[in-house]
Amino acid sequence: MGPPTCRRHYVFVGLALLCTLLVGSVAPAVAAPPPEPFCQCGDAIEGGAAAHALDLTVTTSTATVQVHENGSATWVVRATTDADAATMTRLRENATLRDSVVDGAAPGTLVSSAVDSDTVVARFRDGQFAERSVGVLRSAAFTNHPERHLRLASLGPDELTVVAPEGMVVGRTVPGSTVSDDRSRMTLTSLDERDVGHVVTFEPRTAAFGPVKSLVAVAGFHAPTVAGHVGTFVVPSALVFAFAVGVVGSGVSWVLARTSLGGEFVPSLLTALGAVTTVVTVVGAVGGNLFGNTDGVAIGFSLGFAALGVCSARLGRSYRALTAATATAALVGVVGAVVAALVVDGASLRAVSIPMTVGLSLAVFTLVPAGYAFARGRRWVGVVTATVGFVCFACALLPLTAPTVGLGGFFVFAFAAGYPLVASPLLLAGALLAQNESKRDGHHDTERVAAAD
Q: What is the value of pTM for the model shown?
């Protein structure tokens, strides 16, 4: 043990690293501009009119984005107003005033403006709406950009239509949009904040493997951001978790090896706990929306817990059997979450976070085969097994494609350090199953010796 001065230095360094992590997670979000509409449209026109003392309110607005083969786009904004005839006449006859009023209604450079009865029409040229990638056009207009920290608050116009270039069709779209039968255009009437982060693609109409190319193009766009977050948060926190679970797992197996406990009751206990928690979560979801938007995840996780107990009883007592039981339990959890969301909550599949359900299930259930491996003396197998589950959970929890992970980056480190101790009963359950198996192996060896005699 080092002198007190050295120990204080370690504490200071640890606190400094913790503060750095926290600031690095939160500062980008704090420094980012406030959320804004996808297209200012009506708001910008009303603001421009007010700046020139014009009494004008936009009642409805639409925007059409015609994408071109070189990635540029032409925006046409139409804003119907309640302005009186004199105001509209003034705008119709004064092009300079009209251009000043509509300027900023859409991204890009104003090309022209006009007045059609009670509607103001403006055309804009956006030179960077999309870019070429692996044979398709890829647009990040609906995506949070790491460089710009774009944060979309709403759609803006009452209707937005994005038209594919000539000879191309819409590939990847924004959830909630409507695609025409010939896939030449995508229409949106609203934009949920959960939709932000999606990349839109345009594929050649006759191209082979168009959807695959779109998938590769989207993956290529997100890859640098994902790699940065994985290297900064997932990998370091996984190392912390691996160390913590190694210490706790070894301690559990060391203590258990010096007892005479058996694990015959473990599968029944797991099944009972899963059944009880399933009943509680279903009643809570139906009776009072106990878990809010995560009702489906809670129910699915509880069902998976029960499935883990049943499978551990049916598939035998070995590392492979318990690993198969873990995979089955995670699958049951996902199916249960989807069914619960559709039947119990009456919600759509979008209300179910399948990655989070899988990640949470694996983070919990993998501790059982990990505990088994620790008790059988396969320490590294136990560490790797549990860490795989943690990594799945961390990747599901963190918004890896977003510019910043927010407080999630701090949480995964706290979770990595504390979770192995909190979840040590699951490691104990797996170790008890191994303890029981060891006794069976010893019993069979005794029978074989007796038979030989």
A: 0.73
